[in-house]
Design goal:
By secondary structure, the protein is an alpha/beta fold. It has two domains: 198 residues, Response regulator (Rossmann fold), CATH 3.40.50; 137 residues, Response regulator (Rossmann fold, 3-Layer(aba) Sandwich). It is built from twelve helices and 15 strands. The chain is elongated and about 70 Å long.
């Protein structure tokens, strides 16, 4: 009888210790429905959930982690509403924000409310190194990498990009690099997200501007619609683009035939891919690893920080700001003024796979 009572007591004490462990609430502001790329981000959502399970299964973890998701419907307005809900109603201690359309309008909120906002996005000018942090590869680095890929190309090259908050900065950097090399400006065509008809755009690029190569910044439904309508035309430019081997993209053969150059921010370790497939019953995409690393950065930063009586949201923000380097599953990130950067890799797509592409270094 005493043995049974002792076992019950130990069990109760263990349960009490688990409940007494401080909980850190992390809100994730992302598009789960709306644009056709929602399916792309739903895979990233599964990486967050897998990691939450792993973190809370650790027997000696100093904190419990609770994730909650706010669907911003792929609009800046809903992203703002999602951030306010996370902070005011769900009492978030930190935020993770996906994509630049959401990061731009939520960065001032994070600064005003003094909460860490780790963004898997573009928008280097929004990163302040105190409350707002950019994670992955920003638009300036991408512009430099893309420019290096085409600067010596004999093909007449232009830029086709969806108009989002950070894409003008990408274009400006491309033009600056061209000017520094004494080259003419690139013809630029911006389209609004969820454009219905690309036929006029394709006709202009092909017949009027006679572009032989496109730097392509399109995603999700926009990209799929563009490719669908491109296949119906006689226009076959070469491409430089930002896609992880074109996973999830329909009609990819049009890229393979032209030997497209793609930028990939980081390669996932095989063991992570296997673990993710076992958990999610599907393969990871490029942002799956970045999402996992965003949360990993927050967790490692706060768990290695000295104890403080300050509110948790201030402790997390300060802990992230003090990290100068971070090792994640996608590679090693270095912080520079609030941007945790990882250099992208360039590959040329072929019908047999991906070949490393080593361009010249642009003049900065």
């Amino acid at each position: 009888m005493k043995g049974i009572l002792l076992a019950v007591l130990i069990s109760l004490l263990g349960a009490f210790a688990l409940q007494a462990k401080e909980t850190i609430n992390i809100g994730i502001n992302m598009g789960i429905s709306g644009n056709g790329e929602a399916a792309f981000f739903q895979v990233v959502q599964k990486s967050f959930l897998m990691e939450e399970q792993e973190l809370n299964a650790r027997p000696n973890a100093p904190y419990q982690y609770k994730l909650f998701f706010e669907d911003n419907m792929w609009t800046p307005r809903d992203s703002v509403a999602a951030a306010e809900r996370m902070i005011s109603l769900s009492k978030a201690d930190a935020m993770i924000t996906l994509a630049d359309y959401a990061f731009g309008p939520t960065a001032p909120i994070a600064k005003r409310r003094q909460i860490a906002n780790v963004a898997l996005a573009w928008g280097a000018d929004k990163a302040d190194g105190k409350y707002n942090f950019l994670f992955g590869t920003d638009e300036i680095v991408y512009a430099r990498v893309f420019y290096s890929a085409i600067k010596d190309s004999p093909l007449k090259t232009g830029i086709l990009a969806v108009r989002q908050s950070a894409t003008p900065a990408f274009v400006d950097e491309m033009q600056r690099l061209a000017k520094a090399d004494g080259k003419p400006e690139f013809p630029v065509t911006f389209i609004n997200s969820e454009s219905v008809d690309f036929r006029t755009v394709i006709l202009k690029l092909n017949k009027e501007e006679k572009l032989q190569q496109l730097v392509l910044i399109l995603y999700g439904d926009d990209l799929n619609k563009f490719i669908y309508q491109l296949r119906q035309s006689d226009y076959r430019p070469a491409f430089v683009m930002m896609v992880d081997g074109l996973k999830g993209i329909q009609n990819r053969e049009i890229f393979l035939a032209g030997g497209a150059i793609v930028a990939i921010d980081g390669r996932l370790p095989e063991e992570f891919e296997e673990k993710f497939r076992a958990y999610a019953k599907e393969s990871p995409n490029q942002w799956t690893g970045f999402g996992y690393d965003c949360l990993k950065l927050i967790v490692e930063s706060i768990e290695s920080a000295p104890h403080s009586t300050e509110p948790m949201r201030l402790r997390i923000a300060r802990a992230i700001a003090q990290r100068k380097e971070f090792s994640g599953i996608s590679g090693t990130y270095t912080q520079n003024k609030g941007v945790f950067e990882i250099p992208p890799l360039l590959f040329r797509l072929t019908t047999t796979g991906e070949e490393p592409f080593t361009p010249t270094t642009p003049k900065l």
